[in-house]
Specification:
heterodimer; A: alpha/beta; seven-stranded mixed sheet; five-stranded parallel sheet; B: alpha+beta; 4 helices; 7 strands; 12% helix
Chain lengths: 360, 161
């Protein structure tokens, strides 16, 4: 059986959820599929208060934003949700296939599709990086904040972007000692307030340092770090072994764009947006007219921007389907103004520069 | 320096402190937010309007120390956990510091705990004089320290039992 649906949202993170809400409010029937155990994407693991402004729920903790959006979605009768469902293919006839609960294949034929698949973590290729005890930052958060499992006793964080800094703090809150945050760049990449709050709690942040090797018999026991010079070369004599049973890798994200490739959307490599990203217009519509994008799949950024992009895309999709939205222009402009204001500071500059290559 | 280590420098701190006259009048807010990031909940947090409205959400926060009475409501509402209150008039020798604390267990009133500076180094013993539970779960701990450490101590460690 093929599910004929007006709107299919792939990915139940902040972008997908907010897009679904916009369309539902405009009276569109929405089906959302998500591969997670719970709807909410990365939001459900975020215990810190969000930055931004009121429209992006600033000051509210991430998981609470997830709960809020979930409650709103399920209050609509015309919302249908498939959990533990992974989109596996996009076919020439416009059919999307998905695997539910690892056993049942589903087929959808949507009139319009949102790809809000988020991002995947970049790996770290160094000797013994396959030992148990080397985790991606997302896995560490899942263990701690969803399953209540301590991932280790003494951690070493690799990467001082927002994810590395935030999770170092959460590890400390969970009772794990954190030896250091190691960052190869000469400066901290994440927000300085996140850096300051872990520094005053006693976690050193070692910029211009990198991890070179991991050792251990059956699992991680220690790691070697070294200072790097301005050409990223290790400085001899600065090697140092640190005892640790948990190496948390937070060295960046890359957009999850496989479905966009399969569909044949025009893509461009934009380093400032984290990798290959879809060319899109101001409605967040890709170069194939019935495919829209939002969130990290469209370029690595904050959850707050994903929320706004989701709102713009959802509105655009409802409009594409011919739903009557009396204040369409007003809403569209409001979300864009908010997004532009969000991106107007020094932090958002990188995003704005990257968008010049893909936003028409 | 701050960008390499996460530790604000003396110069960073001096830039955000109110005048000497204001400091001698009583408690005031210290907003240790030195980077333009898109964030503005502090501006709505103060019912006295002591944290000024921003033109752009990326602006640095700015306090009106004439309106600030050091109540500390904003401490629990800053997503960056970057707001403190200092009262240098607390007593002859001691200053009061109100700091955000998102760890468990919470200290108890009367506990004497290690006072840490912005680098996480222990610089004194601090007395906990009040534990204020905040609905945001960013609780506020009131400690007293020697006056000369009023702008050094920014965290506490609860010794393991």
């Amino acid at each position: 059986m093929i599910h004929q649906v007006p709107m299919l949202v792939i990915g139940g993170g902040p972008a997908g959820m907010v897009a679904a809400l916009q369309a539902l409010e405009a009276g569109v029937d929405v089906v959302l599929i998500d591969d997670g155990i719970e709807i909410g994407g990365q939001l459900i693991k975020q215990t810190h208060k969000f930055f931004g402004s009121e429209m992006e729920y600033a000051g509210t903790r991430g998981f609470q934003i997830g709960n809020l959006l979930t409650d709103k979605l399920f209050s609509f009768d015309n919302f249908k949700y498939f959990g533990r469902t992974t989109a596996t293919g996009f076919y020439e006839d416009g059919v999307v296939t998905a695997l539910k609960d690892n056993k049942e294949y589903l087929k959808f034929k949507p009139e319009v599709i949102l790809i809000a698949t988020g991002a995947s973590e970049k790996p770290l290729a160094i000797p013994n990086c396959d030992l148990p005890g080397v985790y991606g930052a997302g896995a560490v958060q899942t263990l701690m904040n969803l399953y209540g499992v301590m991932p280790g006793k003494k951690a070493l964080m690799i990467g001082a972007g927002n994810i590395g800094l935030i999770i170092a703090y959460q590890l400390l809150q969970a009772g794990t000692e954190v030896s250091a945050v190691v960052e190869a760049m000469p400066c901290i990449g994440g927000y300085l307030v996140h850096a300051s709050k872990i520094r005053r709690a006693g976690i050193p942040i070692m910029t211009s340092h990198t991890i070179t090797e991991i050792e251990g018999d059956a699992c991680v026991e220690r790691a070697q770090i070294v200072r790097v010079d301005e050409n990223w070369q290790p400085v001899p004599g600065t090697e140092k072994w640190i005892d640790t049973d948990l190496i948390c890798v937070a060295v960046g994200l890359t957009p999850l764009i496989d479905l966009l490739w399969m569909a044949g959307c025009e893509m461009k490599y934009v380093a400032k947006l984290g990798g290959e990203v879809p060319v899109r217009n101001k409605q967040m519509q890709a170069t194939i007219p019935n495919i829209f994008v939002a969130g990290d799949a469209a370029g690595i950024e904050e959850a707050s921007s994903a929320i706004l992009e989701g709102a713009i895309a959802g509105l655009g999709m409802a409009n594409f389907l011919g739903a009557e939205i009396a204040d369409y222009d007003e809403k569209h402009n409001k979300y864009w103004n908010e997004l532009n204001s969000f991106r107007s500071g020094p932090i958002g500059q990188r995003i704005s520069e990257g968008l010049k290559f893909v936003l028409s | 320096m701050l960008k390499q280590t996460g530790i604000p420098t003396k110069e960073d701190i001096e830039k955000i402190l109110p005048s000497k006259q204001r400091r001698e009048k009583g408690a005031y807010v210290v907003i240790e937010c030195f980077e333009e990031i898109p964030c503005d909940p502090c501006t709505a947090a103060c019912q006295y309007g002591a944290i000024l409205q921003m033109e752009n959400v990326n602006d640095l926060p700015e306090a009106d120390y004439e309106k600030c009475n050091g109540c500390g409501i904003c401490i629990g509402l800053c997503p960056g956990v970057a707001i403190f209150v200092v009262d240098e008039t607390y007593s002859e020798e001691k200053a009061l510091i109100k700091l955000p604390y998102e760890f468990t267990p919470l200290p108890n009133k009367g506990d004497v705990v290690p006072g840490l500076d912005r680098a996480g180094e222990e610089v004194c013993k601090a007395e906990v004089i009040r534990v204020q539970k905040h609905p945001s779960k960013t609780n506020i701990i009131w400690i007293t320290v020697q006056k000369e450490l009023a702008h050094e101590v920014r965290f506490i460690r609860i010794p393991e039992i």
